[in-house]
Design a protein that fits this description.
It is built from two helices and eight strands, in the order αββαββββββ. The chain is an alpha+beta fold. The relative contact order is 0.15.
């Protein structure tokens, strides 16, 4: 019986120690997050009104490629914003994904007449892994939209 009491006391001390430790760690990381959020906010204010230049190409996969060499965008602009500056875009917002899906570019729709072709984008020769509205561009980025057969 005395052993059981002793074990419970040790377990209680260990749990109290872990509680204090995790609380201290949570406080520390909360402070770090607040600091990083302030730094991010300050950087956004500093960059407000500044612009970037990007290159946008649209490849219709029929031999026609339209290229816009110097598209000027506000800092913190997305791939979708760059496309909308140079083309007529139809897109559908999907709230469950918090993202836009490109339906058509310059009147050329995804899977038009069941052709199995869909619009995809690449930035600096790498396929976009997030929706075009969630990919934030850097200066001198090269964006290519391709009407690709799947």
């Amino acid at each position: 019986m005395a052993n059981n009491v002793r074990i419970w006391k040790l377990v209680s001390i260990a749990l109290a120690f872990l509680t204090i430790l995790t609380s201290a760690m949570a406080f520390y990381y909360y402070q770090e997050l607040a600091s990083l959020q302030k730094e991010h906010s300050d950087l956004l204010v500093e960059c407000e009104g500044k612009t970037i230049l990007v290159k946008v190409s649209i490849d219709y996969e029929n031999g026609t490629i339209t290229t816009f060499e110097e598209v000027e965008l506000l800092y913190n602009s997305s791939v979708l914003k760059a496309l909308m500056e140079v083309a007529k875009v139809e897109a559908t917002y999907w709230p469950s994904f918090n993202a836009y899906f490109i339906d058509s570019i310059n009147g050329i729709a995804n899977n038009e007449d069941d052709n199995g072709r869909y619009w995809e984008y690449w930035v600096n020769n790498e396929i976009g892994l997030v929706s075009a509205d969630n990919y934030i561009l850097m200066d001198a980025a090269e964006i290519t939209w391709i009407y690709k057969k799947w």
